């Protein structure tokens, strides 16, 4: 049976990136959370195959075969009585929510435990979607630009040629990189949308119990033993009821009640406690990243210091000159390059690039002045000709 899960080993294997095109918060989504959810999905799936996921007690011996009762209760779902969740075990109820009931009592069917493994797998795939979209949008550009300059062991000739290509590319595509940067920022925002959306999805999946599940568990551990009501038993009951209808010997309708033990819910309750804390932490970290990204977009001074933090071997003036001339896309390309090439090579790249930009600025200023002078000459000539014609 475990041979079925062998292909998953390749899927969850973490390989070091030769070129970094994202950040650590991004990795928390498509690596850490993806692996956590996939591992939980495989664990729940395995528990359904190893041992019995459900075991039911039939009141009348021989009334219904044990296998039939277990299978029926598993596929049709079991139920509890919500208004009996706070009863005293052994006095008022058998287990939380499990006691004798009438047709007037409200019952709550627990169907979601059958779908936990599928839901977790589906969620793991969704956490990889923003990364997949970004890889398509990125198109290997950073790998092409890095040109294996992340290794200090490069011959001077090769290093000089590659630096020249990189500087020429940057100058020729100056102020044309904004789309690259904003695609990444949109994918970062998709991570936040995804984690918040999945929290709402799990709340719907667990009949509105997930939103306060973790906080209820914390409160439960702090209560006195006599007063506390276990929220995990309410959401994932270990003992439930099941009703089976059959025909009797005379053709009359018989109703058979049974108690069912769900050992799989012992695993499910722990999984969702962990996921509640993990998703809350992940949503907070991702929200802070979005705030940080907005500050980077809005404040040029912040971009200057961030790039300088990657350029500790050079002067602050060179970074300031470049940042003032760069748009957000140009800055983002440089910042990503600083994470993918050797610091010494990046220092030389910044120095050459600053000189190129200075030359470009002087050339543009010269052409602009020449254009103004030419316009002035044309205007003087026009006035002179107009005066001659008038005379």
Automatic annotation (TrEMBL):
It holds the Pfam family Innexin. It is found in: Cell junction, Gap junction; Cell membrane. GO terms for molecular function: gap junction channel activity. The chain crosses the membrane at residues 24-44, 112-134, 180-201, 271-292. It is a multi-pass membrane protein. One of its GO terms (biological process) is phototransduction. Keywords: Cell junction, Cell membrane, Gap junction, Ion channel, Ion transport, Membrane, Transmembrane, Transmembrane helix, Transport. InterPro entries: Innexin. One of its GO terms (cellular component) is gap junction. Its main location: other. Belongs to the pannexin family. Structural component of the gap junctions. This is Innexin. The lineage of its organism: Eukaryota, Metazoa, Ecdysozoa, Arthropoda, Hexapoda.
